[in-house]
Protein 1
Amino acid sequence: MKNIEQINVLNMFHDGTITQLIERTKTISMEIEIEYLAKLINKNFTSFICEFINYEEINFKFWEENDFTVIDSELLKKYELEIIEAEEIDNKVVLKCLSKLNTGGNFYIQTETIKIYDQEKQEISISKLAEVSHQYWNTI
């Protein structure tokens, strides 16, 4: 999956909050709480799982602290990171986030592909996610 495709996927989670990171061998799962979008899949849902498969790099750098990089998933959860937008910087996907405890920072992501799942661990196609995202933004 090309960077531009990954950016398009991640931008659909605008305003979502990263609530959990789970690391496995070459895979990181990120739970993103974004109730307004999840409810369009199932009225009882509040979040999605974004799985980064065969990742080479995932780390977070605060804007205020140039040399402070966080890779500890437990520590990152405490910052309650809210997604602003995704873009490409230096051939990496960068997820810009605000923080409840700090001004925010950037998630740097290099991964082969991204898969999206609902709360019941059912895979959601990128086209379905785009459809519900457009549905939401066209109703407000």
Protein 2
Amino acid sequence: MMYKLKKIVSFSLFMSAVFLFSKCQTEESNSNSENLSVANAKKWFQSNNSSLDVLQYTELIDWDNALVINEEGRKAIEVPLFMTDDVSSNVVVDKEYKTYMRLLLIEGQEGTYKVFAVDYTTKNKFFDKNNKEFNLYKTGTEYSGYITVQNDKNKVMYSGEYENGKQINLHNFDPLQNRTKRDVCTYWVTVGPYTTCSSWTWYPDYTPGGTLPPGYMPGISGPMFLWSANTLLNAPDQAKKILDRQDYLKSFNLNAGGSLHVYVDQPVANGSAAYSGVVNPDVGHTFIAIEQNGIVRVVGFYPSAAVNPFTSPGASPAFINDSAHPYDVRISKTLDASQFSNVISKITSYSAQYNLNTNNCSDFAQQVSAAGGLNLPNTDGSWPGGGGTNPGNLGQDIRNMSLPSGATIKTTGGIALSNAN
């Protein structure tokens, strides 16, 4: 009996040691991966000049305390910023609020990054900006205050008021009149005893077409009306939903070449506006078609249900048959067998969640194109509640890009191919 007991105890100790060793190996592997992600982001950032306002007041970019975020299939890095001793920043006048700054880098294609400054403004005196469990995508249940995001053109893309970790209002937004308030500064900088406004611009002050009326100064001379708080965008046609992508594409020969077509339906034809209209705004659409020996399949990337740009920009993905969809500009490229196979693989394996700001129809088309060796340019635009890659800017980028080898560009618009065979 004692002998059996000793064997059981010995086996239990052995299994515990194996478990602990395996756990340590996994943690070490995860740590190494995160360290590499931070190192890559740091190298890219230091090699590319950023025009963020906050950097001229920054004493230290604390890469040692950077945190890695994996959100909806994409990787981002948040890095604490330490301001010089005589500088503080705020997005509200109340001096009981203090703002803690972080640099945000969202990983893009080909090892590039989109760069933002994030302001966490709160009365919580114990807020820890080095807390790796807190970030833009994970605000917990205790954070109260404001979160403001500026892009590298120093345009405020988002400003929200938070209570117990949840957004309760858009900052500087009057829900009763559906417009932004007047004379509101969105980004304060204090140097010594003097406080000045670094940026009066908050995106919803812009007009829907992306242009300003004569004499209009954003946030100063008057408000512009916004989309309704209940605006819904990009509802898919459920009748055209592709239920099984592998089955949908099974007719193609993966050992032969073919063609890739990228279609862009712009909100304003031959214009870079990210949207058009106020009631039921048009945000455009980007979609693709693949063709081989008379076989055609058309694919568009959508949210599974319409999304709200203010409160719920994300949703599970849906793939739709966009046959005969109208377009304003098209780029087509001949693919060899390897490139064609890569495109098919990218479409069938694409699992990232839809997000209006970070992974929309244009992002999908760009990633599929890159898999086929067609690297499309990227220019971000903005809309009420957010911003990112969009058909307006992408269409103009395609019109103006140098023609890649094996590619053609059509700028007169028309009707896309329909599924065949």
Protein 3
Amino acid sequence: MHPNLYLLVSATFALGLSAGAARAQSSSQGFEGAASDTWTYTATPATYNVPADNDQWAILSDVGTTGANGVQAPPATGTKLWGMRDLQGPPTGDVSIWHFLDFAPVAVQSGSGAATTVTFKYFSNAFDTSDSLAYAVQFDNGTTWPATRTYTQLSKDTRAWTTVTVSIPAGSSHVRLRLAARQNGNDDWAAWDDVALTNAAPALPTLRLSAATAVVDEAAGTVSIPVSIQNAGAAAATVQAVLVPGLSTATAGTDFTYAAAQTLTFPAGSSANQTLTIPISNDTQAEAAEYFTLRLQNPSGATLTTGATDVLVFIKDNDATAPTQGRDIRLNHLTSYQNGASGTNSAEIIAHDPTTQRLYVANSIGGKLDILSISGTPAAVTLTPVASISMAPYGGINSVAVRGGVVACAVENAAPQSPGAVVFFNQDGTFQKQVTVGAMPDMITFSPDGQYIITANEGEPNAAYTNDPEGSVSVIDFAGGLAGVTQASVTTVGFTGYNGQAAALRTAGIRLYGGTATAPSTVAQDFEPEYVAVSADSRLAYITLQENNAIATLDLQTKQFTGIRTVGFQDHSQPGFSLDASDESSEVLMANWPIRGLRLPDALASFQVQGTTYLITANEGDAREYTALTEGVRLNNASYVLDATAFPNAALLKNNNALGRLNVTNKLGDTDGDGDFDEIYAFGGRSFSILNASTGAVVHDSGDLLERLTSTDPTYGAIFNASNSTGNPVRKNRSDDKGPEPEGVTTAVLRDTVYAFVSLERMGGVAVFDVNNPAQPRLVQYVNNRSITTGSGDQGPEGIVFVSAQNSPTGQPLLLLANEVSSTVAVYGVQQRGTVTANRPARRAEPLYLYPNPAHGGTVRLSRAVSGTLCDALGRPVRQLSQADRLETAGLAAGVYVLRADDGATRRMVVR
């Protein structure tokens, strides 16, 4: 080619490129500080980055933290992003204010190269309901934002980079963009990146549901579900809304009307929401909150926003009433005594000695044994301090028991994993002697006949799980009184005999999971005794193994364990076992969910009815939380993956207004070992259970009664599921954990009736039940002495003691409550009402029939609806029934079963 011709072609080609580049308008900002970052912006308020306070509003290399509350965001591209976290903090004077990035107006070019879209990317994590993340676009050359402008809300929990595209309307002279946020809290954060003004083909409109959940009262008549459109196009767009099977407890045609798929149409050019209106039925049946799921599908002329296509609609029942309280006895608060400032003192466990009319209080935080005298009349009781004994020379006090002026304290070693002690004092607190017991004695009691002192030695590991002592029970021979007690009087019984039975124990439902992957705990190390109850004849001790979800039985004469049985779990999908599972939904939504609640009992007590011994357990729940092993995780955590087959609606379950905030265990539920969870197990039953002490069979579980009771209480419903912290109570802030957390339990016989008293650790107070029919306890009363507006009153009940009339200083029965958080001892007088019916006739159960029987698979129908337990031939619980008129035999092995109804009826069932 001729050199001049080459130069001419080259110049022409270069001019063509330049002209093309000029026609394709673009402006961008990637926060990289590069020459390509041409779209200028102004930050209001000014940039700040205070890592010590997690307060960030600045260009960052990443934002957020990995772990239980989310995933960390790297830049979408490049090495930088605009990050924000805890926008209410020291830089803003701890005031919640709007934060803006205002991008300067850019003139829109003319011709085919003119900019057609505004795009940006954002990443959000766990923004709360009250937080906001939004944007606004103006198509003019204004220097200030108008007072009235339209913000488009962004998803508050994408956990991934999401692109937003906004079309520039024809005829626009300029484009300017505002990104806006208002937020507090350092466990939720967001980021922006890759802001650009580009020339691109017109994007299809995007359709999305405005929220992932909706709540409607069943009396409202209808519920409205808005669907929004972004980037409205020149043509109309449509989308179908359909019912989704699988995640629903409401019935179409009965609870709401939705016969077939419905189509929503968005007119051409319209950016207005379209609304799906669904009729709701107002029935007269008292029931749990019900829900159903809708999904957007088959869009035409539009696309769907990922993660915003499903909505869970709650129908809140308006027929339920507060549980009836029989009030045949009444608890009246007489006084509360504070044994020291809360926070630096505690009143954890209390013991009463009728021979001296003194109370002995385990003040574990203060490191003291506090001694009080109690006196007064049925109308007024006085607690007077006698002495306060420092436990520093002995270790840390965990529990106390007293009998006949002898005070026995369970004391943890200063090196907690080393053997602990029982330290004896006289009635005035003068040291007498001490003996060595197992590691971490957590509870101590005298047997009813006074022949034994028993301690439950929890044996917890250190944080790194490098020192894990064996759990044990120590039995002290006290037949000769304190004078006869020596170290030789102590027998510490461990669980080493079970070390070769781990597989069989797990199969039987015992939780064994302690230790690390390289050094798993032995069975003896994994068992952690929590609490002891002794049979009326002082022959057997029953010990809760809380973290193991089990009860051990110890023969006090042979000093041998005779059995370890699981206490099972709640099936929260069944009627009568609903729960309020979210701390973020403003409504109390007692609903059934596809989850199970591990009972994990703390305290227990034994009682007898017609010669049969029963156990009542307070199903508090507990999780192991150590540096080397933390089993608790939020259900919405990215590491907690739900099996797609078992939970096809996992994204909705993980929504914070559904189950996303619920604390669950990551040590149970992966049934096939493939790394995801096929079953969901939460902590605690939120209930009490009554078990047959001989067989271990659950004869009754209170299910959702305690939450229904407290949520409907005319006074304390205002602080339903509030924590027991020392600040002002916050309603529902424990709904995502273990709810009311039943902690303590004791029983008493008044006249001809056995009563059970169950304390609620979080909300506070005591619920009283008539348990003369163990299969059908009857609610008597709920009382509380906590402020509903301030951090005052009795908070955090733990120890609970009943004082009979003959042992009471007032001649009236008393109930004593040790409140750990407020460091107070509360005294309630027990007033009896009504007449004695010494020989109450036994109720005869209505006959119960099963058919077909024998069963050959499929459904077995019951002649009437019953609540009860299906047991196998060995008496082990297999299924729990709650007002069921049928049961499915699928999954049951061939054999003989017994259905034991709570009303006393029994019927044998054969499966072939």
Protein 4
Amino acid sequence: MSRRRANALWRGVAAVAAVAVGGVMIAAPPAAAATIDQVAVSQGGYSASGYKVGFAVADGALAGATSCRLLQGETVVLSSCTLGDRGTTWGDRVYEADFSAFDDVGTDFALEIGGIRSPRFAIEGNVWSSYLDEMTAFYRLQRSGVATEDAYPDGYSSIPPSEKIFHAAGHLDDAASEDGTQHYDLTGGWYDAGDYGIYGGNQWVAGNIAITYLRYGDTPEVAFDGDANGTPDLVDEAWFGSEYLLRMLDAFGGPFWDVKGSGGFQHPDDHTDGVVGTADDRRISGMGVGGSAKASGSLAATARAIRAAIAGGDIASADATEWEARATEAEDGAVAFYQHADTHRSDPLGGYSTTRGGIANSLLFAQVQLHLLTGDAGYRTSAEATIAATPFTILSNTNYWDMGPLSMAELYPVATSTGKTDIQRYLKRQLDYVLSSTDDTPYGVINQFKNFGVNEPHVSYMADILRYWELFGDERALRAVQKGLYWVLGNNPWGTSWVSGVGEKHTMFLHTRLDEQAQTQGSTGVVLPGALVSGPNAKDPLDMTSASPWYEDRPGWVDVGQQWRYNEYSVSIQAGLFSALFGLTAAGDAPWATGTPPTALTIGSPKIGQYVTDEVTVFAQSGASLTAHALGPDWTPMTPSGGASTGVVDVSGLAPYTNARIDVRGTQPSGAHSYTSTHYTVAPPLPTPDTPLLYDGFGRDGLFGVQGYTWVNWYNNHAGVGQVTNTTVDGRTVGRFFQNPATSMSQAKFQPWHHSVDADGYRYLSVTMRSPSPNLRLRIEVSDADSGHRVTGPTPIAVSNGWATYDFDLAAFPGLDRSQAKLTFWLQQTADTDGELFIDAVEFTNDVGGTAPVLSAVSHTPGALTPSTPVTVETTYTDADGAAPHAVELVMDGVIHPMSPVEPGDTDVTDGARYAITVPLVRGVHSYYVRTTDTTSSVVETPVVTGLAVG
């Protein structure tokens, strides 16, 4: 993240030139020389004949004479390279350096632009083959029920794991029935992620591993036997996963269950005693037929892989009989799981299963693999019927939850002529979506940022379009996959490789309980070879006002709630990267340069990270070759006007700080679609008496409460225990704060994790509560980064047994920075008795007072306007009471731009003070209004100005 970008998006766009407003010249600050924040490259390296690109990420436009060269060590090996100005992305000016023509093989290369060097990287004959052992190492280290030092022979991967992640065999007592009265042998499988859960919807990755061997096993680098046991490691790993599926079948005859239970940050062998029948045995839960269908496809793929390895001589003849028996067992299991899923389609689908297309989509995976295994045409007929009935839609969920694209690519070579037509049509539409979405930024990343990192959908799409290239030879797909993997290997504005162990600067603080020190200050993180973390979020979960998108390799002990999601990994997140690396290894030096890029389509407004309110106008722009613009998700036709197409998104019903994506598509003459996306953040209300800011309503509402987490009892002074639970009392959803003290000196500390809130502009902390405990006393502290304040006064207060709202005046603490307020509640009992406090709502509020301000003399830059001519909007703010505005804001097309005083020294607003802002506007017809508040009266808005044409 660039140093200055954290605040740029919320502040609006500063004046870019001197502009005369009302006779006063508003002068832009003098331009400073641009600074290159970093030079980003693929830290995983490049293939000699492959596409090679890096980026300079700067805080402004670079001089035309900026140098660009390639070094090996300190020797210049490429004296110049051309910098392509890719414009502004996420607040940074981005320059692209393409050095694909350089094909020397070696190590210790660095791209240097303007004197700033990138991290070091290698150029190899086939760089992708360097990381295949890490891909299988990852799964071996995620194995449950085995000692990982046995599963991972010494030196197995070129990138070694951290010693502290090795553990003894864990969860040998999996699993008990839901009521704990019966035991099932469910040892084995892979831990889904770092929390040791084993989810039925994700164990399908055994099939993905088997399919990878089937697709690429003829490539010598793919059929490796790293543990020297006479069997390709891909077949070994697929069988390990399949054994778990067969245990599930033996236990239940067809249904598939989850086995959950995470425990603390300790190794899995310490979570339970490993003894069957004791109280700590993990229990099954969440039965789902989707997992059954996926298990069928996975077992069929494994049986195919085993037989292919025998036929190809990759399994020694002496072991062939044993392995053929395993293939038969897998085939029988595949048929049994399929029959169960097919006859129980109305059963619960289960977690981590297909959410688009339901059970038919999961069954498609099984039907295709069973047809390829058995040759039974009935499976193909069923599969093709599902495909024919599947409309193409943008997949809002990650592709590993949608078995369609993988299944279609698998079926295509043996499909009927009609089936081939349907499959190619669908997969071509997906390619169009991916190519036109990844051109939204210079980095080649799929534009699907949300609050669970972008990398999981991104690499899934990369694997899908690589299979498209394999089937149909579209070189644009092969190029996009290379660039897309460079993104996760460090070619991004954070200069971070999100693949553990790969690169000079790679993520260290993986969210995993294998790192037993993860929650300890001073922890250094771990390396789990090849693990891909989920990466950038739409926002920093610790700071809802942060820039978009956001990423930081942050140690786990500073995280709260769901903030681990940016460094989460899982066996299913890994699947796309796994498939793509093996596929690119098999592709070798295949050409990638031919093909016309998709027709450019852009959203001019809103831009990612901007704050919006009420009805937001979306401006889509493209060349004449794209028509029929439509607004997702329902593809509502947009209105062409003034050189742009517009549509409206109403955000008035969304909670403050909601992050959401807008999709737009246009149609080419051929009927193919081009896509683009942007993101917005819903602005909080301006602070007024009639717009209180709900922090927690204890019913999954409010800024903190919407995350679904309860408050935490961090600490108990002078012993005792505390607990918070969400419950219902007197028909209200409340937080129950409970203290069991050891003595009357005991104090229980409660906080909403480490969460802080921007309560700037609000005067009162208002808490609606009651306590049935006469001995209970409450102290509330509000702190910022530098100070803490006891807002309940010098001594704890008693709380009524009847519902009452207590208002604590924050104005009494002038040193408090309310924009980063952090709350702490302390309970203490006057005697050694239990105490309960029920809290219905925690809010920030204001009182009505004085007279409302007035906005007048609204104007904007006159004359013909163009996108290259920024528009200045001015207004006069007057308040008879002399109250300064909390904010004066321009709302242009629903996007909020904070305005600034024209004369900052003029603080007397009784006779009017002028405010202005200069913003660039995209082509089209715009509308705007200005709003303000003095915090003691309602929001004041000017009439809407319409018809502001920019051409």
